[in-house]
Amino acid sequence: MLTANMEGVNNMHDNFLRGMMLAGNDAPCFGYRPIDLDGNAGPYEWVSYRHVNDTASAIGSGLSKLGIKTKDCVGIFSANCLEWSYVEHATYVYNFISVPMYDTLGIDAVKHMATETEMSAVAVAPGKLPAFVNMWKDLPLVKVVVVFGPVPDGIGAEIPNGPLIISLDDLILLGNNNGLAPLPATPATPNDTCTICYTSGTTGTPKGAVLTHMCFLSSANAVEKRISHGLIPIMDSTDIFFSILPLAHCLERSVHAILTGRGVPIGFNQGDIRKIVDDIGELKPTIMVGVPRIFNRIHDQVWAQVKAKGGVASALFNYAYGVKKSNLKLNNNQHWLWDRLVFKAVRQKLGGRLRLVISGSAPISGDVLDFMRIALSTTVLEGYGLTESAGPCGVSLSTDMKPGNVGCTLGTCVYKLVSVPEMGYSIDDKPHPRGEIYIKGNNIFSQYYKRPDLTAEAKTTDGWLITGDIGMFDAQGNLAIIDRKKNMFKLSQGEYITPERIEVIYTDSALVDQAYIHGDSLQNELVAIVVPNEEFLRRNVAETPDLAHWAEHERFDDICQSKDVIEHFVGFISEWGRSHGLKGFEIPKNVYLEYSPFTIENEILTPTLKIKRQAAKNKYIDILNHLYDELHYKLTKN
């Protein structure tokens, strides 16, 4: 199953030991920025592979001494941090099953995960401990709570029969006391459950995807093959990876597995998205995996600066950009002059050393992908995957710079397309077959935990994962994601709408930070809730004579509520949609400008920054109805 250079790697702990062998016991493994009493971050400090292995072994030993058994579930309720990874690797060493829990999920979702998995132990960030106090009485099976910090005095005293609460430091001391606890008699096999990753729940209660060690090892093995064929740059201990996405996200977990197995050091961000640029400047990474929203922001900010400079500088940037964009057709994004003279400043903002950038989690526009390749002058790839495929199952080729495709499979699985006649997609379409993407292979989840009904909806009886994504195979055999079957709805005139595709098109504009497209079967038009970018909206209205007086208005909410600004924005929405290939019925006819962003905290976004459609509908239902009332009034008036 695995190639020769991964022989003997049967589980995730073996994979880590392989990386330690390649890099060296004392090579840096994980890096973090210590925060002083004033909240200022210092330079990155590193812990070695040996230290991570010893610490993880001690944690696993301590849990074992406290009664946690092989294949018991161990939850991790925290943002990304060094301690998160220690506990993760402890589960590998002692063959526990990790259950990552997004630190931003509501307590009901966390309670659901802990109850459904019959969790025996949970590791908790200090700030999350009070929330656990409120639900301990509902979690009688939790024996141990491990705190990433000191245990507050008196915590849990009102629940005398509750779990043991212990700090991570004390657990490590316990694990090392009188030697480590015996390792499992039978180490984890490739087919043993490694983790239960709960989906982020865009439509309802999170469901747990059961992923084996093989799911992650197959991705690591596939990357080995890609590297050997020169389709992905070599990655080793001389690289540095910048960790942005939450570790509870399968993509980040899979990337960590791939990189630690190759000896690549990983630097964590501070946990504050506003400080990511500062972290990048300090770390100077060579590898970065992010989501389109991050790259969209970089794209918008750079172009805004170019426009603001004007004159010769702006003209030179645009000329150089045009030259390099033409060269992309020849699969070349290097230029001996413009990379030094024009685009060096952009590269320096991202540390100046990036040589591999991958966008994943959601579709990225071709314009932004072209921009990243041109401005960074490095390998920029787009990946495709799902929680149910343990993260990445395909990625574009470094030798192909044509945007709009996610390449072929990594080699962990195979794709097939299935016709969707109600949407007009068929495997017999010419010149290229189109249909719903089905995936089968070593990386596919085995089941949704304790949910055979949902498993039957997501997998065929012969093991194909039904993705809900609509794809097309191009002339080279690459897969392009062209539509979405899930969340699809029909308008009253019978036209099918896939809102996520439309939202991607609009958020590609600098004026739009976020968008929620809404419609239903009783209406024949779409409406939208749009979060505009304040900087660009003020600039836009300043350039519009009838609206210029709004540009310097102190309150952004007043600008968003101005009828004149809204009418202007509706016109922009129409023009942008038509110029980007949307049909008339796909363009929202009325818009509400929301000055407060969609966030995880206000429960509109999932932890992977996707819109919770039902939550958005519930929050804005009165406004959505009012938007339709306004449309109907205009129609009757006319």
TrEMBL record:
Transmembrane segments: none annotated. Residues 42-449 form the AMP-dependent synthetase/ligase domain. SUPFAM superfamilies: Acetyl-CoA synthetase-like. It is an enzyme of class 6 (ligase). Its EC number is 6.2.1.3. It holds the Pfam family AMP-binding. Keywords: ATP-binding, Ligase, Nucleotide-binding. One of its GO terms (molecular function) is long-chain fatty acid-CoA ligase activity. InterPro entries: AMP-binding_CS, AMP-dep_synth/lig_dom, ANL_N_sf. It comes from the Eukaryota. PANTHER family: AMP-BINDING DOMAIN-CONTAINING PROTEIN-RELATED, LONG-CHAIN-FATTY-ACID--COA LIGASE. This is Medium-chain fatty acid-CoA ligase faa2. It comes from Coemansia umbellata. The lineage of its organism: Eukaryota, Fungi, Fungi incertae sedis, Zoopagomycota, Kickxellomycotina. The gene is FAA2_7.
